[in-house]
From TrEMBL, chain A:
GO biological process: amino acid transport
Originating organism: Rhodopseudomonas pseudopalustris
Transmembrane segments: 12-33, 40-58, 64-83, 95-114, 145-164, 194-215, 227-255, 262-281
Gene Ontology cellular component terms for the protein in this record: plasma membrane
Protein name according to UniProt: Amino acid/amide ABC transporter membrane protein 1, HAAT family
Membrane topology: Multi-pass membrane protein
GO molecular function: transmembrane transporter activity
Keywords associated with the record: Amino-acid transport, Cell membrane, Membrane, Transmembrane, Transmembrane helix, Transport
Subcellular localization(s) per the UniProt record: Cell membrane
Length: 291, 248
């Protein structure tokens, strides 16, 4: 079989880009699940809100991409914290099913509202001027924006990992994930930490949405399509480690990309096939701790 | 208020005021009514021990004071403040520190992070150097994962981390449970040392031989109520009664 290097690398790049989104989103999901014990089905809708936020910032206020990278996660993050305070906090201690159903319902509402105003078709969002064009690497042509997405996502993922695994704040978060009652009995305001953690996870989703806007179109259902794959990624990676979520996200993106080159018919299903295999062999996921 | 309670029969060693005052404390775990009206007090600078059989409600009492029990009623006053309705983080910030029976060392944190986790609630907490002086083993294990420590080391870590906070009222739940005699002695020395530094300690202990080395007063708990109390000086005289209460 002759390998068309150009086509392979092109698919690899697409795979890395998708992997970036998988990593950012599964990271947020893992952090939320660890801390709140909620399977956040609203994650895809919040990713979509991030993209729309960037769109509104540009088209209503003339605020461009670079500001959107900060403002959209902050805005959607605040919305997420409001959601946590008004809806999610009442589910604490209940079976996972309730969190799943509630956030699923919220996702449907959010998506329904956006569909009502914007229909199902996509809205355009331009690549910022500074990131337009491409660079010829010799073995392939690399569009600058796409390279930026992968690099920036990696940096954000690593910063998040560092925050959680290496800082005092992260230690508080890890401890509260393990034993929130005891952490609170030391004098730490755990409910506030929980709200902020949800905001962090949501902010990561919204950031992914902003990154995604110039590549994919800004559409109300953009998150719904993505979230199913992200859940499969989370199942495969397990909730056990932050680094595990990041690596699994990127790796599965690449695997998907490679499958698209070598056996395109399977590219839509390869992640789910892997998920089934992992569930059969190690249900807690590759890095998960068996509970 | 006018009834003679067991409190009147105990003569505390120190003449301090009541730092913790508990009146008619009732508590529930879900549907189970565990405490049926606990009445006791702990005066500043004292070491008071709650004795009693398993299931008597000793741990539940500590948890009720700390505010981590499901439902509680009654009057709990600490340092002049009513804490009977307060959330546990607010109670901790009043200057109370709790060392649970299961120790609660976090597996996802290393020893140093475990040690540094509880925030300072009062000035004057022990410095790291002072803590390593009390518990030299901890200095070498700082980078180990918290739960990789032995039972004795975990107990020392659990006590060490609350000493950092500056809280002057400590509640220790079965600190010697399951530990080797050598470690138990070390913990006894630590508590004695804390006592000389003016700490007030509420201790739950099954091992009353150990408690006898540090306690000023005892209360006996049975079925969620205080049924007896005596000073340390009266311990020998009450030995037979104690054996009956504890079923040993």
């Amino acid at each position: 079989m002759s390998i068309n290097i150009q086509a392979l690398l092109a698919q690899l790049l697409v795979g890395l880009i998708n992997g970036s989104f998988y990593a950012l989103l599964s990271l947020g999901l893992a952090v939320i699940f660890g801390m709140l014990n909620i399977i956040n089905f609203a994650h895809g809708a919040l990713y979509m809100m991030g993209a729309f936020c960037a769109y509104f910032l540009l088209n209503l206020f003339g605020i461009g991409y670079w500001w959107a990278l900060i403002l959209a996660p902050l805005t959607v993050g605040l919305f997420g914290m409001l959601m946590e305070r008004t809806l999610l906090q009442w589910l604490s201690g209940l079976d996972h099913l309730y969190g799943l159903l509630l956030t699923f319902g919220v996702a449907l509402i959010i998506q329904g509202v956006f569909q009502n105003y914007f229909g199902s078709s996509g809205l355009p969002y331009a690549i910022p001027d500074e990131l337009k064009g491409g660079v010829n690497l010799g073995f392939m042509f690399l569009p600058i924006y796409r390279g930026w997405v992968v690099a920036f996502s990696l940096v954000i993922c690593l910063l998040t990992w560092y925050l959680i695994e290496r800082t005092r704040l992260g230690a508080n978060l890890r401890a509260a994930t393990e034993n929130p009652t005891l952490v609170r009995a030391f004098g730490i305001n755990v409910p506030r930490m929980i709200t902020l953690t949800y905001g962090l996870g949501v902010g990561l989703a919204a950031l992914a949405g902003v990154l995604s806007a110039p590549i994919n179109q800004v559409r109300p259902l953009m998150g719904a399509d993505l979230i199913i794959v992200v859940f499969a990624v989370v199942v495969i990676g397990g909730m056990g480690s932050i680094m595990g979520s990041i690596i699994t996200g990127f790796a599965l993106g690449v695997i998907e990309g490679l499958t698209k080159y070598f056996y395109p018919e399977a590219s839509n299903t390869v992640v789910f096939v892997l998920m089934v295999l992992v569930l059969l062999v190690k249900p807690s996921g590759l890095t998960g701790r068996a509970t | 208020m006018v009834e003679t309670t067991t409190l009147d029969r105990t003569k505390p060693a120190s003449a301090g005021n009541a730092l913790l005052s508990v009146r008619d404390l009732q508590a529930w775990y879900g549907e189970s009514h565990i405490l049926h009206g606990m009445d006791f007090e702990v005066r500043t600078g004292e070491v008071v021990t709650l004795l009693g059989r398993n299931g008597a409600g000793k741990t539940t009492t500590l948890k009720s004071v700390m505010g981590i029990i499901g439902k509680r009623t009654g009057a709990i006053t600490f340092d002049g403040h009513d804490i009977s309705r307060a959330s546990s983080d607010k109670i901790a910030r009043r200057g109370i520190a709790f060392c649970p029976e299961e120790r609660g060392i976090f597996a996802s944190l290393d020893v140093r992070e475990n040690l540094m986790l509880p925030p300072q609630v009062r000035p004057g907490g022990l410095s790291l150097e002072q803590i390593f002086e009390l518990f030299p083993n901890l200095r070498e294990r700082l980078k180990s994962q918290g739960t990789k420590l032995s039972g004795g080391e975990q107990q020392m870590l659990a006590i060490a981390r609350i000493l950092r906070t500056g809280a002057r009222f400590l509640m220790l739940d079965e600190p010697t449970e399951g530990l080797a005699p050598v470690i138990i002695q070390q913990i006894g020395r630590t508590i004695a040392r804390l006592k000389t530094e003016g700490f007030t300690i509420l201790l739950v202990e099954q091992n009353f031989r150990f408690a006898a080395t540090v306690a000023d007063r005892y209360y006996v708990v049975e079925h969620g109520k205080i049924i007896d109390g005596f000073a340390n000086s009266e311990l020998e005289a009450n030995m037979d009664k104690l054996h009956t209460y504890l079923g040993v």
